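Entry 14. Two folds queued back to back today. First construct below, sequence then structure tokens.
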Amino acid sequence: MKDDVVSSRHDFDKLLRDLNNDDWGKRAKAVYKLRDWDSPLVKDALLDRLSDENENVWLSAVNVLKDKKDPRIIDPLVKTLLEDKRDEIRWHSAYFLGEIGDPKTVDSIIKALEDKCSEVRINSAKALGRIGDKKAIDALIKALDDNDPVVRKESVFALNRIAPKKDVDVLIRSLKDNDKRVRSLTAILIGKTGSEKAVKDLVKTLKDEDSFVRVSAVYALEKIGGEKIVKPLMKALKDPYWEVRSDAATALGKIGDKRAVVPLLETLRDNNNFVRKSASNALEKFDIFKK
């Protein structure tokens, strides 16, 4: 038993020495193996690796320290986010700060929304959404004009997480974004707010050139509900794309407005089986097949 303890101590000391080895591969391997050691010495040694010149060693050290929930990792991550010259280190810093979720990092992450690297801006928007601090709202609204569509998409998503009811007006403008992914996500998120303010703009989105954006608009209108959306959804039963027609039929069945009965009966002759099935299921909700 004593020999095992001595051997274990020897291995531990060797791993600590390897953290300063000239070979980055050995440094990274030592970080990986030290993850299983529960010792203050390990945390202190790994904190020193947060200034490692090799990205793999740095990334391994951050992962271990994050898992060990060492709060001392936050300040070095903020520093690398704002000052490191390497794009990969900066965007990973934003990502990890989002996972940690400390509100005191919000101001620094907001600054990173203007980073020259789009991956940094993308992960900064994600991080702000995860943290959920309302002080990020103005910066995220500004990011809706970013030249990268993924940044805009993540900003829309973050805004919805932070203040889903408050910023419907901001989201509405993104229904006209030139990227279909942004438009589709925006429609879905607006639907989740249940805000009737967006109905007019969602109805316009039913004419979007992209079929999946139109599907998202149908989803949103169904979530909002009300008499105003019945006629637009009836028109959507003639959409060129079968999924729009199918979802429109389903939505009309859930709303239950009798004006939809005749259009739904006509939809039973649709050339797509899924659409016909949706129309039939919708009509069953009106009890028209019962004596």
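Second construct, same run, same settings:
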Amino acid sequence: MAVSGSKDFEPNVADYVEEAFERCGLELRTGYDARTARRSLNFLFADWANRGLNQWTIGQVTQTVVSGITEYPVGTITLTVAATAGFAIGETITGGTSASTASIITNPTSTTFTITSPTGTFVATESLTGGTSGTATTVSSSPSLRDVQSSIDLLNAVVRRSGDDLSINRISRDDYLSIPNKATTGRPSQYFVDRLITPVLKVWPTPENSTDKIIYDRLVRIDDADASANTLGIPFRFYPCLAAGLSYYLALKRAPDRIQLLKGLYEEEFARAAEEDRDKVSVSLVPSFTFVTGT
């Protein structure tokens, strides 16, 4: 018997929605049925983020530090302007109408530079002035915060200097607050992730140069299920979990008699997928020195 030779099965949003309705003992009939299912699908993705999944959405970011600047967005914020000649890396820029401020954290190109998370919002056509250079230009469009706001968490980080990568330690909010002198300069050795709506990476000591690089892995959210014709950015092994989860979410609204059945199936599928979605490496156990010596 011949096999298909095909490995391209990839359900779109409509396929998942139809599958979920059928598992609930229902039929997809109206446009509202499709809309409420897509909304449930997006809530399901948020639940997956809270459960610590999305290994396939890990992305690596390289951020060159700037001398004297301790706070960096977890991702990239790009500001587009009429011209950048005369602006300097590290200087503070101020919007003439909005009074928003930010610092430049990459060498400007002809019309763009990346910035720290702004205080306020730069608006299109307003004037922009550099605090150090005094250079003036015009904002072409408001910067998008979407890339940074899509960050769920930062997983690990290193500092690269002269080609060598050195691990830096993540600390808590309390530990960061307790640092007595945050203006101390040196090679960053610790970082705190301020998980705001627009997450911020705070490093310590304050960078002493503008050549070191912070390289970190971040977990980002799954793309939304906006249209029924869209496919979803998840790996093949998570298809059953997604179908089961959407079925359970729809049952909460449309099939209360099947809630327990579908919830149990979803949790089973989720546990199986979560067990698969991990690093498979050898584990080394090192005995405590205190335990061995008895002191």
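Quick look at the second one. Residues 77 and 146 are 8 Å apart (CA to CA). The radius of gyration is 24 Å.
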